[in-house]
Write a structure and sequence with these properties.
With 73 residues, this protein is of the alpha+beta class. Helices cover 16% and strands 52% of the residues. It has one domain: OB fold (Dihydrolipoamide Acetyltransferase, E2P) (Beta Barrel), CATH 2.40.50.140. The protein has a five-stranded antiparallel β-sheet, covered by helices on one side. The relative contact order is 0.28. One of its GO terms (biological process) is positive regulation of translational termination.
Length: 73
């Protein structure tokens, strides 16, 4: 069994097939936009001006965006 780590990070930009996510430290992490409907919907909502939190799963040295939630204003 291997450890699974995860977290929610704020989406601050979308560019060249990558999501730019802000870490709690203020640093920026770029992750590949997920394939399929998840990635398309995430990018669409971001371009519509929604504030988005992205759920990131980390396992075996890889990180992937696995879900997102619109931040209620």
């Amino acid at each position: 069994m291997f450890p699974l780590l995860g977290g929610k990070l704020q989406l601050i930009d979308v560019n060249d097939g990558f999501l730019s996510l802000m870490l709690l430290s203020g640093e920026i992490k770029d992750l590949k936009i997920p394939d399929g409907d998840l990635g398309r919907e995430m990018v669409k909502k971001f371009h519509e001006g929604e504030e988005i939190m992205v759920s990131v799963l980390k396992a075996v040295g890889e990180e992937h965006a696995v879900d997102f939630k619109i931040i209620t204003k």
